[in-house]
Amino acid sequence: MAIRTKRYNLVLPEELFDEIQRVADKQQTTVVEIIRKFMKLGLLAVQVEETPGSALLIREKGVEREIILL
């Protein structure tokens, strides 16, 4: 069974694209794959935000921060 896909053209500011390209190069993958991962993470963040009593936390060097979507 084939996976169904949708096409969407995305225009990004050059600076943002360059940052994503650097991440892709560092992880030895494509810009498209990085954008897909970012979207999945964003969808997870929305799901957490919509769930009462849940929070999205980032721990960096032992310091936790709660992520709040605006």
Largest sheet: 2 strands, antiparallel
**What is the end-to-end distance?**
38 Å
Strand order of the largest sheet: 1-2
| Series of H and E elements | HHEE
Radius of gyration: 15 Å
- Binned, the helix content reads 40-55%
Could you give a quick summary of the protein structure above?
The protein has 70 residues and is of the alpha+beta class. Helices cover 46% and strands 14% of the residues. The chain is built from two helices and two strands; from the N terminus they run H-H-E-E.
Keywords:
single chain, alpha+beta, 2 helices, 46% helix, 70 residues, two-stranded antiparallel ribbon, extended
Protein architecture, described:
The protein contains 2 helices and 2 strands. A two-stranded antiparallel sheet has the order 1-2. Strand 1 and strand 2 form a beta hairpin. The longest helix is centred in the middle third of the chain and has 19 residues. The radius of gyration is 15 Å and the shape is extended. The termini are far apart.
Topology of helices and strands:
Blueprint: H1 14-26, H2 31-49, E1 56-60, E2 63-67
Antiparallel strand pairs: 1-2
